[in-house]
Please model this.
Amino acid sequence: MRHGFNYSIINELKRIMKKTNIYIFCSKAQLKDYFNIFAEENIDLLVWHKTNPIPAIANNYLSDLEYCFFAREKGVEVHCTYDNSSKMYESPMNKKDKEKFRHPTIKPLPFVKRLINNSSNEGDIVLDCFSGSGTTCVAAKELNRQYIGIEIDPEYHKISVDRLEGILANGQTSMFIS
Ligand SMILES: C[S@@+](CC[C@H](N)C(=O)[O-])C[C@H]1O[C@@H](n2cnc3c(N)ncnc32)[C@H](O)[C@@H]1O
Model:
């Protein structure tokens, strides 16, 4: 365990992916570890820039960035167009979604959809093993991907299932584990 995270799961994720193709929302402290762990891969750092951050305390920059580490193996494509290839996604903190889906660190659905759209094809399986209020699964379902979500907290699990039930299935396989 380091910086609040058990990195052994990364080996398991590498084991089950056909080719490494992974986005990890993480803290600034964890970034150095990920750059080391994925040193052999093609890596990028994406950021969610929050345009309405809490004012900073003296002697500090604003806490207005969330980091999303991206690693892909050689040969894994990103289907970027000029409009969806910025490494920065800008939006206010999604207070409405936070209240609606009662998760303190909910991610913006349009940003997660952009990542899934750029890095997978229809019918692919998207896995989020820390899925919170289910944003990744919702994005995957809306984009006609299959998805596997895993969430340890029964309350967030229920919120996710309710959220997912609101979207038409289009016949794809879905799985959600608590
Ligand atoms: C940063 S949040 C994910 C937020 C999510 N992206 C969203 O938009 O709602 C991480 C989630 O991982 C869950 N979690 C923590 N440890 C876990 C574990 N061992 N297995 C599954 N889920 C876990 C937490 O309960 C939390 O909801």
